[in-house]
## 1
Amino acid sequence: MTMDIASIMGTDRYLSWYQQMCDIRMFEDTVSELLSRNVIRGASHLSAGQEAVPVGVMAALQSDDLITSTHRGHGHCYARGVVPEGQGKDRQEHLNRMLAELCGKETGYCRGRGGSMHIADVDGGNLGATGIVGGNLPIAVGAALASQILHRDQVVVSFFGDGAVNEGVFHESLNLASIWRLPVVFVCENNQYAMSVPWTSASSVPNAADRAYSYNMPGLVVDGMDVEAVYDAARQAVDRARKGSGPSLIEAKTYRWYGHSRSDPRVYRTREEEAEWKRRDPLILFRGKLLDRGLTQDQLERTEEYARAAMDEAQSFALRESADPSPNDLLVDLYAPGVQDIGSSEHAAKQSATDPTCRQKAYWQAINEALREEMNRDATVVLLGEDIGAYGGAYGATRGLLDQFGAERVRDTPISEAAIAGAAVGAAMNGLRPVMEIMYVDFTPLAMDQLANQGAKNRYMFGGKTSVPMVVRTEGGAGRGIAAQHSQSLEALWTHFPGLYVVMPSTPFDAKGLLKSAIRDNNPVMFIEHKLLYGTTGPVPEMDYAIPLGVADVKRLGSDVTVLAYSRMVLQAIAAAEQVAGEDGISVEVVDLRTLKPLDRSAIRQSVEKTGRCVIVSEGYKTSGFSAELMAVVVEEAFYSLDRPIVRVTAQDVPVPVAEALEQAAIPQVSDIVEAIREVMA
């Protein structure tokens, strides 16, 4: 039974709730009108009719609690950002900046970069809305993980629609939150339709909340048109989470007055159905309760007028007083500022590495040492991934770290690539520096939404108000006879996305120094290790050194031809260079790119200008592979220095076969590089 909150909160709080619901309704009606006049561009998904849900939930939160939101998120953003006047954010300023964002103005919360579907008020506790159904669920899990590890008295609420309940990431997220007993509350706003598909046709259970029992958490069904019922359920769930008892799932049965978007003809629902729901309008229901409890008609009418006046002022601010963003700022805030503290210089470390007494380490040991040193250095560095604990990782790179740092900071996860990645994104946004491991690069497409649409884009979409300092450790490449789904080189996929760095070291020395820089960087980094490099050895100084991202390294000096390579292909290129030097007297310069993004274009230009010839070696596929990008860079940077056409040596456009003879034919061999060098020198 819904508790009587009047004795707890008093009339002022009641009136505040009504004011918030009126403000949200007026905001949505105003946006609808502006959309009809094409004043607001793009898609806006309105939540008129659902006002009781965000207002009731936010009333149960503390000032430092967090939310993640959805494409239908204006109400969430407004309710999370409003506090009593004089105690925080000004209500009018809040409405101004929200509407300005929808209108694409510089004064908007995201500087006009996020718009309706990606509105965020990070400083106000809203980690942002996502246009991907269910995309915010694992982010909330990660933010709650950070709260747990950092021992904050903080709860995270994740809002999502009924359509998200059928997404795999919903199930992965609830499972992960339950296993770790995280302080997160999942709120399903069941407005009866996932775009046009009714809930009754899309679900095998009567209620979304029924799914909770599969994940050992309470599932509460509430009347989403009744703000008091929503508050009561939210208060219970938030209290449970704050006490360390784990997550809950609340399903609020509600309805949206407008269509899915402005182009929605609403042919999938009847006028009778709409009229029946509108008789239970959350504003009308609450207005009646307030009159019964002693508020006057005049008080309520003045509250409604206050909402109209506030939206008039917000329109004036957004449409007449706010400037458009400058095209000169297009690239601003795409990446977080670079890292200053990188330990000893690479130059000093290289000098130490040339000492004959310098210790020799295997590639996997260099990775392990970098992780160990960074975890000792920074308590916010945590590891997430499959089999990284007692097992020590598929190739031993996390061996012994569980014993030293414990299960809180070295977390074995279920096989849930999307949830692992999303949790890393959310944890990074809330104070941690997660290093997540996906066992093979072939599996990273399972996490593509969380890495490419969320982690890589959040900083820019949200106007530079957040950072996502995280590392994705994975490994790729062929050579072990494990066939097409465990042997690919998919770096080209990840270099394609703005906001994400890609690192591929070839030596133990580079692996340690680059991983340390990646962990310290404030941007998401895809760190790809080649499976055939783990057993290779080389000098690794016993010092805290880091190699800056975006700096190539000339592994072998030469004057006749430049070979551009990375990862294991660097070793193949050096072997080929030694062969043609001895047999043909050709002087080959081997440039190890080390990081594909940011790419050291200057080093490429300088080497090609010196030699006048270029061979590009990559284990990725030839068609649309990274070798094509490198070819474009050489043409852009040093076209007039080329004496001969560029030659590419790449993997064949075929799934990697298991038979050894076929596998070797599918990927570049030393002999292929030798042939390419001789061709370009002909």
## 2
Amino acid sequence: MNINFLFSRIGLLIISVALVICVLVISSLPSVRIDLTQDDLYSLSPGTKNIVSDLQGPLEIMFFYSESATEDTPQIRTYANRVQELLREIIIASNNRISLSVIDPQPFSEEEDLATQFGIQAVPISQGTPGIYFGLVVAQPEDRENNPQGRAAETLPLIRPELEQFLEYEFMKLITKVNEPDLQVVGLLTELDIDGGFDPVAGQATAQWMIMDIIRQLYAVQRVDNTTVEIDEEIDILMIVHPQGLSERMLYAVDQFVMRGGKTMVFLDPNADSMVSRTQQGNLIPAGMSSELPGLLEAWGIEFPGDKVLTDNELALRVSMGQGQRPIAHLGMLGAQRNFLTQSDSVTSRLETINMSSPGVIRQAAGAKTLFEALIVSSSDSMLMDARLLEDVTDPSILFDEFVSEGISHTIAARISGVIETAFPDGRPIVEVEALDEEDPTEEESVSEHLSSSNNEVNILVFADTDMLSDRMWVQVGQFMGQRIPRPFSNNGDMVINALDNLGGGADLSSIRGRGTYSRPFTRVIQLQRQADDRLRVEEAELLDRLAEAEASLAELNQDENGELVGQVTPEIQAEVDRFNEQMLETRRSLREVQYQLTEDIEQLGANLKLINTALIPVLLSLLALLLSYLRAQRRKAAHA
């Protein structure tokens, strides 16, 4: 094509029409996105897309953001832009099933009243400054005015900066709860007194553990009879705590519940030392027997050595052995800090400490087809000890005599996912069917069809400790006007609620993982700032030393031989004051010079980057184009030769 044709009237007209068509096509396809960021910061996970595509009805997202009050805080404005960008991606993926409203609550306005109705309060940026609104509400539009605080609306009162990696998960959790407003049912399967019991010694009922108080505030709890034939269909999440001696009928019921896609959370323990049973005479008997789920753990791809307790020298908690005695480290009582909790999973992210007592370990079984993702791990300064050794320990110091570090980090809690096969390949156990027929011949007809493989990917959370649920490991319980008031000292309760929220959201919500941060700091700038800070600290320290020396000299000159204060300013005192003032001014001038040089270095770095982006890259592209043109010309010459 003749290049002159492109610049003719017809050519320019064709180019103009082509540009208009391109703009129309691009604007009509808003869902076509290209994410070139390293961590796919602007790409929604498949779980999010599945959730918003299966919404039961329209939803409204209200982002309460004090835009006018944050004009002088670029960090908050940048974070707000990131939040809105993610919300817009969710809106696009929902095909307009979700609407977005960005609300700026001005003082004494209806918008401020609306924010207050939903439980969003203004938070001051710093001391002495007015508060700003930075929260999110997901609601069904028809319930916005009639019932703003009901189950039809879910609120995130403050979108904290530390939530940045989990914004997608937090937003989708709210959407999932509003989309399915009914309280989910947690089925509790245990023979322990976690849900309250009876103390024959005191002759009175015992209170349920505080963890059950908290669970009942957010979920409906239903006890599961360990003789049942089938797990109730109303149960959304099955919570199994320290299973022991379950019948084949019960094991089969659990197996089929998992096969049908039921969400399951299991707490195992090789030595449940915080759970005791009592004889009719009132004698305490340690309930340190190991948990067991024969057949099921193997089918799920898990190994649980029930006769071994994990001891860890690095994670050992210090315990008091009596009044007036010095606390000593207990190798079997562990406190897993943040760096031993998986930060990419919503169950353990943002938690600081999980306390455990005589925990076990879990491993992925050889040849397992399921995905095994660790949630809590030990340090490498650990060892597996015989569980019987810890049952009778009265002096924790003797554990150090047996301890020999294995140099291996063990898994204490993990997420198991994937398609699994049943632990009962031959179907319902024959012995159980016969027993069932003897009890009630008609009951067999009511049970569900046997599943040999899970319908979809399962989602199971397994913890190798049950003592983490007991009050003594994570919370002090007080009383106020007849109400039990928890005072947590570790994050055990937070982790359990995170796990239930995660499982309750289904496989799609559980699949959403944390992503990278939006802010990508310039490491060179940070290095320059640190170098300047070091110089500033050194020179400030020198200034303070000179100030102290000058004050001492002034005090000495201002006293006579008897230590009495001199009533008048002598020439010596005045000379010393002048010298000190001159030194102080000079030092402050040096400090300003350091700060000025830092600004100059940063600006020079920015100028160099701009030069590279605006000049160097185009020059390189031009040189590449010229090189290609030259090579093409050379090939033509060679072809004609």
## 3
Amino acid sequence: MRPSQYAQSPTSERPWAALATLLPHLWEFRGRVLIALGFLILAKLASIGIPLIIKEIVDALDKPNALLTLPIFFLIAYGALRLANALFGELRDAVFAKVTQRSVRRVALQVFQHLHKLALRFHLDRQTGGISRDIERGTAGIRFLLNFTVFNILPTLLEIGLVVGILLAKLDAWFAIITFLTLSIYILFTFFVTEWRMKFRRAMNEMDSKANTVAIDSLLNYETVKYFNNEDYEARRYDDNLRSWESAAIRTQTSLAALNTGQGAIIATGVTLLMVLASQGVVRGTMTLGDLVMVNAFLIQLYMPMRFLGTVYREIRHALADMEKMFGLLERRLEVEDKPNAKDLVVQQGHIRFEHVAFGYDSDRQILFDVDFVIPAQQKIAVVGHSGAGKSTLARLLFRFYDVEAGRILIDGQDISDVTQTSLRASIGIVPQDTVLFNDTIYYNIAYGHPDATPEQVIQAAKHAHIHEFIESLPKEYETTVGERGLKLSGGEKQRVAIARTILKNPRILVFDEATSALDSKTEKAIQTQLREVAANHTTLVIAHRLSTVMDADQILVMDGGRIVERGTHTELLRRGNIYAHMWALQQRQEQERLRKAVGNGLGPNG
């Protein structure tokens, strides 16, 4: 499948669609949501009742005998409503907390799992720093969206509706009309200006992700930066992205100031008109002093949610923008998927067959052409050839990181595209050329081959890989941390950890992908001995550059330009005098030259 076949439309074209993905989480906790909404309504009713009680208190105190009789009942009611407003608000938040946090957890886990399901093609192109920042912003956006949509947009609209209704019922119609017009102008202004501002927010997010990508990439390659004295260069690269982010952030902030100024002007105009009407009513005697205080209290109460409504809408749009890229990751289709009724792979003997396989990473770059060979059960087949011949692609196809374009791959007669990926990969172990370890302990990295293994099994695997004594010599032994990508260990030590991890996994099929090409001769020989021990009684595919490491293979395949051009044992291929023989002669001359220089410099044969 080509990338164009599974590319998705950006989520930014359908930003509100992100809300739909959250509905299942709300439905799962519908009981809690309904209870929280009940507390919300009670809190708002209590809030609306406060100005009405204040009116009664003021009118009671405005009478000539007010000094003799206090409106005790209304004062107690006022305190009770204040308490109820605060209490029901806190109960609402407490009940809804589980809904919010569980939703964030579920979506974050869903994205994490989906990223692991995406094909290797995606992960070779990804920028880890940017993706991590997208997920971080996206989960924060979900938390904000759930809380503020349910507990701010809905109650604000409810409160505005109740206030307008009370004003219409108790006072002149112009109070309700001015309030409604002010609200309408405010909402329209907020909507259009916020939509205009979103391009600045998206640009700011984009620059933030790029800056984070540069920073993470530079820190992960700390040694390379130091080797080439490029600290200033890396700082300039980072600052270039920060400069673009700064520019977008300034535009975001200045446009926010314009939005807030406009909102404030609209609110101030509406509030002033309402207070003029109320004052005129008191002067004419059509309204009491309590009515004036009530209108003022309602205006204050209405001003805050109206101003907050604009802020919430703006922040919701920001949250949606923050969520766009995260949900965009979820929209990426899986390039490699299990078939609907895929069964588990059953490995009895471990017989492997590549049957006329063709494959290319891109439409204009074919890698393999009609590759056809067999790895008999419990035999070792080696694949050699120049760089770019397609050797490592065979291992990736065997693990089904990609699907073949033509032909098929069989294990004990079962097409690997018909079985589950989990069962397939559980049956195969690999020792790669570049062993990347987790930034954790040696124990954790070995146990990763079988996370449920006992400490005794982990130690036994380390002994089989001949690394136990080295680990025991360390101050913290198996609890020694290996550093980022295992950089605290040497190449040979990392390879032994990889071998121990594979031994612990105990697969039926083994792949050694240039497992010793980066090691010195002495270490290579020691590792090769261990690999031969591990490969005993296993079906083994060895991908190698150094021909001296595959002399004992049951059959050697020579690849060139994506095709198998020779096959046979080491002796047979040398006898034919073709590509393999020429490669062998060249490597022998290079090895003799290396030894000659080492002796000339007074060094041993291992340098």
## 4
Amino acid sequence: MAVMSKLRDKTHIILFVLVGAFLALIVFEWGMNFTGPARKGGQVGKVDGQPITSVQYDEVYNGLRQNFMRGNPGAEVTPQAEMSFREQAWNIVVDQALVEGLFRKYGIAVQDREVIDAVNSELNPPMIIRQNFTDPRTGAIDRALLEKARRDPQAKAFWVKAEEVVKRELMVDKLLTALKTMGLVTDPEVDELVQRQLTRFSATFIPFPLSSAGTDAQFPVKPEEVKTWYEAHKQQLKQEPTRNAEFVLYPLVPSSQDSIQVKKEIDALVPQFASAPSDSEFVKVQSDRPNAVNEALSRADFSPTAGNALFGSQLAPGKIVGPVADRGFYRLIKVKSLSAGEPVASASHILIRSNPADQADLQRALVRAASIYEELKKGTPFATLAAQYSEDPGSAKNGGSVGWFTKARMVPEFSAAVFSAKPGQVIGPVRTQFGLHIIKVDGFDNKRIVCSEVVRQIKASSLTSESIKRKAMLFQGEAKSKGFTQAARLERMAVGKTGEFTKGGMIPMIGLSDQASKFAFKAKENDLSDIIETEAGFVVMKLTSKNDTGYRQLDADLQKRITAELVAEKKGAALKARLASMAKTPGATLDAIAAKDPSLRKVTSDEIRWRDGFIAGYGQDRQLVEAIAGMTLNRLSPPVQCSGGYALVQVTGRKLEDGVDPAAEKAKIMPQLMKVKQEQLFSEYFNAVRKNAKIEDFRQQ
């Protein structure tokens, strides 16, 4: 059901993982502690009674952190990134312990002789050997290089490590062998898959969207129906314990003095930057973006104000421009060269959101667009109408302006319309995934500069930070004595609501905050937090509710979503019954059905592919193509489910692609299907092992 899909999407559950990637994690990321004894040190948790030491956990955490820093030189490791590394490290050491448990369960071990035989294997050498000793010209193992490395005394440390890595890989292979009976593939399965993958279908069909069943008001849902649905699907609504909170944020906003100080510092760099013998060395030392050297920039790389200040000035090679204020930064730019490139565009738009699968909603949006066009014809300024009607709040407050952009930055339909128009032209409505756009093209520019720049972020000083923190502390005192809501009203502070969040997870409106999470999961309802420092500023939280039931609560949001699901179910049932009656009418044909209702769209396609669910002239609809693949030729089908509704279908042909050898394709697909099936089943098996394990996390105690 749609609501269940949305709930699953919200928790980002990945059902299937590639065993190859899983093995790489086991073999290479988990390092020397994979099967070795636990070292001395404190415990961060237990898995089925087996301790996870702080040393093991820290080793994985440090490895993740170092990998990030190597891949992102000069990048700041934020508190949010630190928390992400900690959660990744925890999941890795838990999975490590679970796999060690499987090794013990199946009695899996590897002898030294097996390691040597694997290294010497020509047929299937271990991963670490393939990675380090494959000849790129032949794709085979360079045995001479391998033997030279084995005799090199300086490579001793490598071979000690490699032996452990190979041993681990062999143990995992044995584990998969022990579990291989989980993935069996039969000849009929492969034959059916080959036929479907290689067949092109021809069909005619009429899609009926759910909206054609009637309005939502015609399908009322009673409160008891919502409760019944909730109880029936409760097992699918399992979740970790959650909390809800209200909060007041004192944002960490730089003061005017902070801005003046940063500008003063960067102003002082102008003569030094102009005479610097090496721009790259100067930028590396002086800039918050140490790699901002020899960049090719257009107006699209700046805010509109900053772009106008830069590109509206007299530019010349060697000239220093700025510092220019741009989105919380000062940018001091040293021009190296000027050129022309692909044009960038500036545009404004009025967005009218609509559901492309709902014809009634689309018609409503078209009517609204037509009325806006009428007001434009009468002379009402575009910016005024954008502020009044646009459903894109970010641009509406700026008169609909989206600034400067490249073709690649916008969705294809929007870019295609803008870049084929003329400056000053109003175009549309243009349909995109977001709805309908009425667009005013403000202008084009093809100027490019190659430059180096010193960038300084305008940050709140310690003095400003302390001043803001004191305000938060005063509010907290007022909240304790007068109540949270009353104190916020007296101080004219906006009260935010987090919505549900889990322990250690992202807190809506606040972000990742270890301090906020610890408070929420130790506090009682209506408790006030201490001052919580976040990247955005200083927060005072009030815990409003706790849910330790293990299930999603039937709150207003879930009730709304379940109601929408039940309305869709009722519409679907009514539509299906009506279409079934149509299809059973004597002499019923798609032509006759379409002739009775001019609003219906009859689709005929000779290129329908099961492999990717594609229907030429219509689009992608996997549900519909799956049904088409199993239909009898030249017979009007009963109603079948399709994207957004139901359809009546008549399949008119099926044929194999030209030049295809089914036997050869079967031989190719058989091992692939076996591998996919084993991977899926192993993933499900391992997820079940993890779900049933007793996992104790001591990190936040």
